[in-house]
Amino acid sequence: MASPVVIALDGPAASGKGTLAQAIASHYGFAYLDTGSLYRGVAYLLLREGEDPWDEAAAAARRFSLEEIAGADIRTREIGAAASVVAAQPAVRKALLDFQRNFARNPPGGAKGAVLDGRDIGTVVCPDATVKFFVIASPEVRALRRFLELRDEKPGLKEADVLADLMERDARDAGRSDAPMTKAPDAELLDTTHMTIEAAFAAARRVIDGVLQRCEG
Ligand code: DC
Fold first, then answer.
1. 36: Cβ below 6 Å to ligand 1?
2. What is the mean pLDDT of residues 7-16?
């Protein structure tokens, strides 16, 4: 049996990689894994249990299943920040690695491919991915996108605070020693600063279709 197609999307928060990854998965009928939700899940459970996300031993010990966080609101600013802290801890990354690799090798539901988005998919989790993208956008545009997503829930929220959060998170995610966020040398750079989601998706599809045609031919 042919090995599954693996599409890797990495990049900073609110770069558009999640929306793009879902559109790609749905178009090609591939399974989708938002790997950030795994780190957010660990952070959510630690915070709920009154543990400190900076405490490496507590974070590493907190194994969980996706069912345990089903329905939980893990997309908040606080959990995003705590997820970035737990994600810098090597023991946490190690504990989550097999699940991600297994998803890519055996996409659920018999899908012929998997789409994974995160920070280290093209570099560490799936270095042999069929197609890799590194999705970026200017910090100001990313802050505006995240602000628009969050402002209904948080009426007092300021765009400047969202920008400060993103900058802090980028620095931590790119500066950690274990699996830092970085572009794989063979990843396509996709700058979505001035792109609609439709344009970004069309650009990604051109790259993927080209690679898939070469693989089949
Ligand atoms: O993509 P996100 O904002 O949901 O991710 C939350 C945090 O998880 C992010 O700040 C860094 C971490 N993360 C990671 O280190 N590696 C991944 N593959 C995905 C997320």
1. yes
2. 96
